[in-house]
Specification:
single chain, TIM Barrel, Immunoglobulin-like, 19 strands, globular
Length: 481
């Protein structure tokens, strides 16, 4: 997994400002996707619901103010559909990133569209820390969130639904989250002394329900969580990490990530390990080792704070490249199956030479995200057929047909084209043999500048479960470059 978060809240990454024209918005995101393809990034976590709003056409929530400048104003295109089409052309997965409970980044309700659910069912919402949130204690909150997710999964060709670390909000000093009414109305057997457990149960319920909602509609669509980097400190729980974080998932955000991993309620986890190696209260080295030992067989990707390079106050972020040091450490851990970078904006620059290092070292060759561990028994990918050479004027193309009898669940996502040097083993497990990834049914083989010598070509298909088909070779053909 090689992923980048594209944050849209407050126009952190895209669009660069609200109110840009359609052409300006599209040019910005295409430039970003082109950079990702150049770096062989294979996934984006694209924020489509930052604040109970939408970056897509929705009958449930208004279009985001971060697109238009005013919530509910219209656009002449569908941003999510555009991003999916452009990303999939480049063989980049789109994980639709949503915030479950946040409604507004300010307590000023005039920023909300008059038709927003807030004005129709005000009892579902609370104000806390100068922001507005859904109250997770109500069954209606869960039902509405499931409806929103089902709508996206049904109508859009997303590869996953992705939540970040904001469940119950981060604590505000000397203020308790104002959910007394929902607790009194819907305690579900929890006593007053068990309110924290009740809050965790609220989140547990919605996570398990969402997994069922997603898989019942499209079983290949993943459900992933990117939690705060510390589950619990060891002074609170012997199973916790040797950290002294001032905030934790379990105790403060009421997100019991380990429970979800153990029970299979989520498909992957991306802990946000945004601290440096050696940090006193939250050492990156301690935390990445802890998550490596507590992945419970699910795909573990590590969230890295690329936005901190040259910016964070600690000297580690200014001396050399802290992200490179962390990636080298990750490579030594058996259960770490990739990295995710927060956020996209630095990829339009080159902080501390990171992009050079990715291109020349870590991401020199192509990679495909790992199969979801809970879906290993799902449909095997069907291979492409009729692989042949087609000559047209001065163009020499490798051409093939889509797999035969491919139903929706076994639909091909993209193809992997291999170039095997003559005289060496035909081995598709070696990344250096990957020539390119393509969503098309042909490539111009004479345009591949990196090939020198004699090569044999082969093609595989990758289905929606990320399963790769058997290799189909171009028989009796070797090409000299």
């Amino acid at each position: 997994m090689r992923a980048v978060w594209i944050a849209t809240v407050k126009n952190i990454d895209w669009p660069s400002a609200s109110g840009l024209t359609t052409l300006e918005q599209q040019q910005e995101i295409v430039a970003m996707l082109n950079r990702f393809k150049q770096l062989k990034i294979n996934t984006i976590f694209f924020q489509i619901r930052p604040c109970s709003d939408s970056f897509y056409k929705s009958d449930l929530e208004p279009l985001s103010m971060y697109l238009t400048g005013k919530q509910g104003d219209t656009l002449c295109y569908d941003p999510l559909q555009f991003v999916i089409e452009e990303a999939h052309k480049r063989c980049i997965e789109v994980h639709a990133w949503m915030n479950p409970y946040r409604v507004a980044m300010t307590a000023d309700t005039t920023t909300l569209h008059p038709e927003h659910l807030y004005f129709k069912k005000p009892y579902l919402f609370v104000e806390y820390g100068d922001k507005i949130y859904f109250d997770p204690g109500y069954d209606e909150t869960r039902a509405f969130l499931n409806k929103v997710v089902a709508d996206v999964v049904t109508r859009y060709d997303v590869d996953a639904i992705h939540f970040d670390d904001y469940f119950y909000p981060y604590r505000v000093a000397n203020r308790d989250f104002p959910d007394g009414r929902s607790f009194a109305e819907n305690p579900r057997g929890f006593s007053a002394a068990q309110k924290d457990d009740w809050r965790r149960n609220n989140v547990n319920l919605v996570i398990s329900e969402l997994q069922h909602t997603i898989k019942s509609l499209k079983p290949w669509v993943e459900f992933g969580i990117s939690p705060f980097g510390v589950w619990r400190n060891s002074d609170k729980d012997a199973n916790g990490s040797l950290t002294k974080a001032g905030m934790t998932n379990y105790d403060d955000l009421y997100a019991d990530i380990l429970k979800w991993l153990k029970e299979g309620a989520i498909d992957y986890v991306v802990p946000q390990l945004y601290w440096e190696i050696g940090k006193k209260n939250a050492d990156y080295a301690v935390l990445v080792d802890w998550w490596n030992r507590n992945a419970y067989g699910k795909n573990l990707y590590v969230g890295l704070f690329v936005s901190g390079l040259g910016v964070n106050r600690a000297s580690a972020w200014h001396n050399g490249n802290e992200i490179v040091r962390q990636m080298l450490m990750n490579e030594q851990l058996d259960n770490v199956r990739g990295n995710a970078f927060y956020s996209a904006a630095p990829f339009l620059k080159n902080p501390k030479g990171l992009l050079d290092t990715l291109s020349n070292n870590f991401y020199r060759h192509w990679a495909v995200p790992p199969v979801t561990t809970s879906l290993v028994e799902k449909e095997e990918a069907l291979p492409p057929v009729d692989l042949h050479i087609q000559r047209c004027a001065d163009k020499l193309s490798l051409v093939w047909d889509a797999p035969m009898d491919s139903d929706k669940q076994n639909q091909t996502a993209y193809y992997i084209v291999y170039a095997f040097k003559s005289g060496l083993p035909i081995d598709k497990n070696r990344a250096e043999n990957i020539c390119c990834l393509t969503a098309e049914n042909s490539i111009d083989i004479m345009s591949i500048a990196s090939l020198k010598g004699d090569y044999v070509f082969g093609v595989t298909a990758v289905n929606r479960y990320r399963k790769e088909s058997e290799l189909i070779l171009l028989e009796n053909k070797s090409f000299h470059f």
